[in-house]
Amino acid sequence: MVHVNGRGRLLLVAELADSGSVSDWKANLEENGDIGSEEANKSFTLGEKGVGVASPFSAAIYLPCKPAGSKLNIDNELNVEVSMLRRGGDADTNRSDAARVARSLASHAQHETHCENAERLPTGPIKWS
After folding, report:
1. For residues 106 and 102, what is the distance between their CA atoms, to the nearest angstrom?
2. With 0-12 CB in 10 A as exposed, 13-18 as middle and 19+ as buried, what is 3?
3. What is the three-class DSSP state of 8?
4. Running DSSP on this structure, what letter comes out for residue 104?
5. Which of 1, 15, 95, 102 is the Cys-Cys partner for 82 at CB 3.0 to 4.6 Å?
């Protein structure tokens, strides 16, 4: 969590998990309320297999990832979530900001996890699907 003047501003999470398919992952996000309402969400792509979704105050990313040298026979992925704890402002700007922070965190997590066949994540503005 990032704090400014003692108040939480940003919650960042990156974890290696086995969430199943992309549709299972999205369903889980929606069921848990992690990403807001479906009407407020926009999807974006990250490479060939990476997927992201963002609302005006949060973003989540799913990236396939098998750590180099792993002997596990399961399909892991990196799950990245960013929640902006402040409210207000322009919804589209906030959504883009959350998606860019999530993409940066995903890039760092992918590098540090040493994912085999890592996705080449785009830079620049988010390209909405």
Report:
1. 6
2. exposed
3. strand
4. H
5. 102
Q: What is the pLDDT of residue 53?
A: 95
Three-state SS string over 44-71 comes to EEECCCEEEEEECCEEEEEEECCECCCC
- Per the listing, tokens 């396939």 go with 64
DSSP 2: E
pLDDT digit string (tens) for 57-79? Answer: 899 999 999 888 877 676 788 99
CB 45 within 8 A of CB 22: no
Q: Are 38 and 30 in contact (CB under 8 A)?
A: yes
Taking only the tens place, the pLDDT of each residue in 21-38 is: 888 888 888 888 777 777
The candidate with the shortest Cα–Cα distance to 80, out of 65, 102, 100, 96, is: 102
